[in-house]
Amino acid sequence: MGYADVEFDGILSSSMKIYATQYPSIPAAVEKVNETQIPGRDGVLHLRTGTFEQTEIPIEFNYIGKEELWNERWREAKKWLSATNVELRFADDAEHFYKVSKVVLEANQRVSKRIGKFVAKFITKDGLNYLTSGKQQIDYTEARYNPGIISKPVYIITGEGLCVLTVNGKTVQVNVSNNIVINTELMISYRLDNVSQNMMVKGNYEELYLQEGKNEISITDGFTCKIIPNWRCL
Questions:
Q1: Please, what's the b/e burial string for 158-189 (b: 16 or more CB within 10 A of its CB; e: otherwise)?
Q2: DSSP labels for 112-168?
Q3: Which of 9, 53, 63, 72 has the highest CB neighbour number within 10 Å of its CB?
Q4: CA 47 – CA 224 distance, rounded (Å)
Q5: pLDDT value at position 23?
Q6: Alpha-carbon torsion 219, 201, 232, 139, what sign?
Q7: Which residue has the higher pLDDT, 91 or 147?
Q8: Are 155 and 144 in contact (CB under 8 A)?
Q9: In the structure, what pLDDT confidence band is assigned to residue 45 with cuts at 50, 70 and 90?
């Protein structure tokens, strides 16, 4: 996977003989900030929200091949880049990825009978860089150190009965029937068979976020807890 190779939706551009012409310019993530004016106080008070704006990563691609296959290659590219809500990864940073909501394609320029060139604009969900290691399911005792910024993990609890999950001193009560998945990003709970369990959770999803650095996590004895930490960074 050379620098000009881009992985999108789990597919390498090189597998279609399509390559980035140069390293992409990647904008920094921008946090949404609320501005509040307070009577009698100079300036504006800026309140951080912990949420981030979409960003746009433009990448110029080109390809070369047989003249009679020029249009076919373009059709392959359009199909590949039509995926939504998938991952974007670069060869020189393979252990990280961006969450992309959609791709906006510009017109394909036919440079010659054999060469095509086009720009794809990848619209990220939040401009953040996610760690591939953060997609793995690990024991909660292994998730106590967050290497990035605040993350929104998924908790998978197994057991039977009333369980108390405590994260950094904040508690959530969970009525577990065999298993339950608590998705703090989507703010929903469900069983592994996808049956809704929203009514079985009492507490605030935000209080289950993993803070930067060290975190204290505990669970009622008799239950097991796995975490998909969703590590992310700016």
A1: ebeeebebebeeeebebebeebbbbbbeeeeb
A2: SSSEEEEEEEEEESSSPEEEGGGGS-EEGGG-SEESSS-B--EEEEEEEEEEEEEET
A3: 63
A4: 37
A5: 85
A6: positive
A7: 147
A8: no
A9: low
pTM of the model: 0.87
Mean pLDDT to the nearest integer, 41-57: 77
The contacts of residue 79 (CB under 8 Å, 6+ apart) are none
Least Cα distance to 231 among 165, 150, 160 occurs for 150
The per-residue pLDDT for range 118-171, each reduced to its tens digit, is: 999 999 999 999 999 999 999 999 999 999 999 999 999 999 999 999 999 999
Contact between residue 215 and residue 146 where contact means Cβ atoms under 8 Å apart: yes
Tokens read off for 202 = 């009492």
Q: How far apart are CA 100 and CA 193, in angstroms?
A: 27
Dihedral sign, Cα of residue 208, residue 149, residue 133, residue 80: positive
